[in-house]
User: Fold this.
Amino acid sequence: MIDNIFGNQIEFDNSLGKHREKRIGIHHFNQIDPPDPLPDQPIEIRCTTGGPMPFESIYCFFTTDGSDPGNTEANVIELSQVSSVWDDLDWSYVRNWRITLPPSASGTMIRYKIAGRVVGSNHWVYADNQADTSQAGTEFTIYVDNDSTPVWAHKAIVYHIFVDRFYPGDGKRWNETNSLLDFFGGTIRGVIDKLDYIQELGFNTIWLSPFFKTTSHHGYNASDYYSVEPRLGTNSDIKELINQAHRRGLRILLDFVANHWSKDHPTFQDAIRNPRSKYHDWYFWRHWPDDYVAYFDVKELPSVNLRPGPAREEMLNIAQFWLKEGFDGYRLDYASGPSFDFWPYFRRACRTVNPECWLFGEVVQDAESQRVFAGRLDGTLDFLLARSLRETFAFGRMTLAELEAFLKGHEAYFPPGFNRPSFLDNHDMSRFYYISGMEKKKLQLAALMLYTLENPPIIYYGTESGLSQDRPMQQGDRYVFEEARLPMDWENQDSELINFFTKLNELRRSHPVLVNGTRLLIHLDSENGTYGYIRKDGAETVLVLFNLSNSLREIKLPISGIPAKAIDHLNGLQVGIHSGAVEISLPARTGAFIS
Assistant:
């Protein structure tokens, strides 16, 4: 079965092409150290040059007062070449350049561009888009502050709701439908009616799909960011949902699309009808009025010009509006779409309204592309981990040794505090339960790992109760996302799974070591399908074990920090501790959580 999380990005020819593209010309890619600078801390800026064009010198043009770094008043510092590296794949040299910017005070917004002068000419090339003018060159921004991810976000256990498919409301039935594209009838009132269900499961945070005025069931093509789609409810319903959630101790996140909106948006309609529209520059035109930049060239979704200007200000105002209404943060759709310098301003605008808001982005790209969001957002959704968990536990195409090698690199790669909300599936990929062949134990093992790694777990509605899908998303040359968006089956729920996820939520809440502790490999027998690690901090040590095989496995591990009367909390069994070693019989395809 094809699992199309990253599309064709991971195919060798495409990876090679991307690698070579990054080696030709002048590139920066937000490579700074530290990734999220603190006040009064020097900032190292790095870039590379390569390919057939020889660069005589590289300069950084920057401002610290919010003005355009392309103007004549910008500060200018020349970068130094620090090394020349041979690249076998491109069969050429890559030159590395660096400069250190002086420290800045808290609240400073450093805006900068990087340009190289070609040898023997006055020709300049700007990173990263290889523009030949300052006005067109890529602009980068660093927000210098003491602002870190809110503490509560690290402790979040998130329940992801797709509103149209979750619940119509007490006393209401699902709509009669003929297509997965139809409106099934889920409502905001339905979410309110199920808050007790979510709370009793043990979740403490809700991620709500877009509810703005729209023509679609999914809501990612909004035409009015200030009004609730009438099919889903009213603005008053949203206010009540927020109040009811907060009353129960539940935080609530909104799925927010900054990159694009519907062609039906009034500003876009004015821009295509009026050649002198004041909204003309809110969009990117190749040829007005019918050729414009859109999300993946889908004309329904024109991209919004989020460079400095009125469209950016409007988007920031919208974000502030819903935080003022009471939302606790945003999951940011297609965060890699807007320009590099947009997100620092977005974060500052949001934190001004709610200093404790949680902001994480959807970046379905490689680790390097995600890491550059450090300092811009609190973090990014962990698509890389999702793929590894699916490959290991659902498909069996990744060995436990390969999984451990991935985790070691993954945990070390991102800067401290970079938040990576983790998941097994979502609305844009086949459900885990489906790709596992409806094997409950595979789902349980994958969920055990999801919950016992560092970052906040996210559960897509219905995963906790055995909701699956009828067909794969990949259907010929089409990818049908709606297959993973079937309505919640409230009448046929798997009580064993519900109890299992309730237990995982309880363990996550009652063992802070799962959030704050380090992970250490304690056992790996890839051939026999057994694996284990500890999570430990100064207060507690817990042991997590997995048996992916089809046979009972006897495991004996010398380990310190586990109490003499240890309990496997997942299965409610006492564990033998003899001569400082944990001894456990682990049934086929089961896990254990021992402390």
About this structure: The chain is about 25% helix and 25% strand.
